[in-house]
Prior knowledge:
Helix content: 25-40%
Number of strands: 9
Distance between the termini: 30 Å
Radius of gyration: 16 Å
Number of helices: 5
Amino acid sequence: MLDAFVIQRRKMKSGNFYYIKDTYYSKFGNHRVMKGKEEDENGKHGRPCFYCFEYNFFYWMIPISSQVDKYKLLYEEKIKRYPIYDGIKFGYVNGKKRAFLLQNICPVTKNYIDSEYRIDKDSIPVKVNQNFAKQLNSAARKIIRLYNSGTKIVLTDLDYIIDELNSEIV
């Protein structure tokens, strides 16, 4: 894993995947941020991994999950109630199907990024294909705009987190 100093010097990129520091979970964990997986006998997991999307002064992080069946059922329930539901999308990461949980999107600054998700001995950043990245980015922008206009389909307490992040920047 890359250390924090290297992350601070390297520009984060939309479309890449990152892990969030424990300090973010400590600070915002009570505001419905999807928590990282606890350490167990196999050590620290660094999960969840987040797809990064840069928009309106923040890096917006979309957690991904390997529990595709669980989220497919949830998605199907939502589609029965709403003709369009952008809270969950499905795509491939490293050749494996994953659920992208836009309903759990959260903003971060570079200070809260622990490391970038990379493969091949940390030499290649993990990405999704370009067409799927466009779909995710479009859905994320839509969700953020809806949230800002009063439609709260996001589970995360974005108002509190954004206020706190803004206060740190000033």
